[in-house]
Amino acid sequence: PVGEGGGAGQRRQRRRLLSASVLVAGVVALALYVHTSSPGAQGPGESQASLDTVVYRSSSTTTSYCTSTSAGPVLGGADLVAYHSLDAGSDAVMGTSDYVATIGDYEFYFSTASNRDLFEANPSKYTPAWGGFCSWGIAEEDWWTKSDLGPYANPNSWTIVGGRLHVFMYETPMDYFLEGDIKGEVYSGDERWEGWFSDDVVFNTRCIWHCATTDKTQFC
After folding, report:
1. CA 120, CA 116: separation in Å to the nearest integer?
2. Cα–Cα distance between 13 and 218 in angstroms, integer?
3. What is the distance between the alpha carbons of residues 134 and 150, in angstroms, rounded to a whole number?
4. Fewer CB within 10 Å of terminal CB in the chain, N or C?
């Protein structure tokens, strides 16, 4: 069970703190992105795609980039059914291409055939809130738009609220979400997502974060 508390003033303060943090991260990330995009910047065997997944591209992230169906499975292949039997704080269970379910052109990977079958029987029970983007970002960060979507999510930063999976960029926004007005945040996120994508199927396939404790790529 998750407690509820806080208020509008606390939420505004937290947004300001995270805004400042993301601004710093964006400056650092832009420098890294320019560097990794330069000829010869990649190390042996590294592809631009793999470098992009660990750079917070806040200045250039778009919905089409983050939700491309050709980029791979939703949430990097995390088994969405397995979350519901994990202890809080556990890392995600990663699925494989041996057990795949689809919604439209999106692929979902699972670790077992039984988990895949459970998902196919009731997809809405297991799909992550708000397409698998950072729940704090969708609920509280007002700079994201329908066309410029990209509060990155880390499959290992997650919680279940009311039977619904929420993922987060890293542990600080998750803490803010859990310590705040959860009902208000869920309402805000639902209203915003429905306004953007009421008739569309949209999931996060590429904007995946890999640090549990920071949004700063230099500390990853």
Report:
1. 6
2. 25
3. 8
4. N
Tokens of 172: 């600080």
Q: Which residues, 6 or more positions from 92, have their beta carbon under 8 angstroms from its beta carbon?
A: 75, 78, 79, 82, 83, 86, 155, 156, 158
Distance between CA 155 and CA 81 in Å, rounded?
A: 13
Determine the 3-state secondary structure of 109 from DSSP. strand
Residue pLDDT, tens place only, 78-97: 999 999 999 999 999 999 99
HSE-CB at 108 with a 13 A cutoff on CA atoms is 26
Helix, strand, or coil (residue 202): coil
Structure tokens that stand for 7 in this block? 């208020």
- In sequence order, the β-bridge partners of residue 164 are 161
Q: pTM here? A: 0.74
Amino acid identity at 133: F
